[in-house]
Amino acid sequence: MKNQEIPFFKPTIEKEEIEEVVNTLKTGWIGQGPKCEQFELNFRNYIGTDYAVSVSSCTAGLHLSLIALGIGRGDEVITTPLTFCSTANAIVHAGATPIFCDIEPKTLTIDPEKIEEKITQKTKAIIPVHLYGYPAEMTKILKIAKKYNLYVVEDAAHAVETVYHNQKIGAIGDTAVFSFYASKNITTGEGGMITTNNEAVAEKLKILRLHGLDKDAWKRYKAGQYKHYECVMPGYKFNMTDIQASLGIWQLKKVEKWRKMRKQIVQTYNELFNTLKEVQCVVRPGEDTPDNVVQAYHLFPIMVKNPHDRDHLLTYLQSNGVGVGVHFKPVHQYTYYQSILKNESYPIAENAGDRLLSLPLFPTLHQEDVKTVFEVVQNFFTSKKQIHLLNSNAQDTVKK
Ligand SMILES: *Cc1c(COP(=O)(O)O)cnc(C)c1O
Asked: Which residue in 58, 133, 321, 352 has the most C-beta neighbors within 10 A?
């Protein structure tokens, strides 16, 4: 029997978001303008940074951060293999070489103890990823960065709400980049935000995101008299639009409420899965307090004890109407990265990558659905045991 479909993710788009978008459409200013400025102001107030620069995606923001920091051809940037491919792609886009560094088995974030052995004369930056909204070990990473004079660009795609040692993610490295992709904690459909406390970097990012122009269209329009613009560098087309920002302004107001709702769901999942020995939870609400960490609870991955079960379980869940994902297949295992790397191996990331699968998690997911998801996983293991028993009984019969 197929259950009612339980999607992997469903964005929460409410009346306020819809009205704001309609209102923006009616004003006639739908490109980058006052709504983007408003969203940036609200975002930097929320994070507590001096600057926030809206962009078209987190990928674009990572790429722009590297360009703004002067990183390019001939440079190396260290990052984790257990991330979305776009973290490494952005390094390639900037013209630099991604250097992978294995992860720490408990938090699955980049292992600071292994970073130093990856540093060469060419190393310019480290990109830690706050995976699933759990902060990477920033104190140790910053110490290494300082020692070797490296920049730190944080991939904060999962980490809008994350706090590390009493400090919000966004103000720790040189820049932090957030994602508002459709399935992230807050969404603008597509979109991203770069936060920084460095004024010169913020100015450069603003110019780079819009063709390299010294004045954006909204500022020229607002000025009243005609203003010529100057193209001061070959920039990109990486700006956000006011339609997207209209969503973001309201999504941001609800970010903490939704985090609490997801935390509740994660708690229920943890209680249920603690009774199932074949899998292990990766995101644990009990880890919110040590060292003053606040997790963003972006995803709910579990790890199967036996990697052979993983793909069967993915198929089983999907065919029983439960949406699933894998976060992530380690980036160095993808065809393109295989082609540029020299048979490199990152055993801890590979082990995790073979055993991880993510279950539905979004604020409006019902508690009964959480229970159903658990039961489907449980049924998979029970039926597996039965099949195993049947097979061994059949063999016994043959023997007799
Ligand atoms: C989603 C994601 C990105 C990319 O975000 P976009 O806004 O879609 O470009 C980057 N890194 C991680 C870890 C992500 O999950």
From this structure: 58
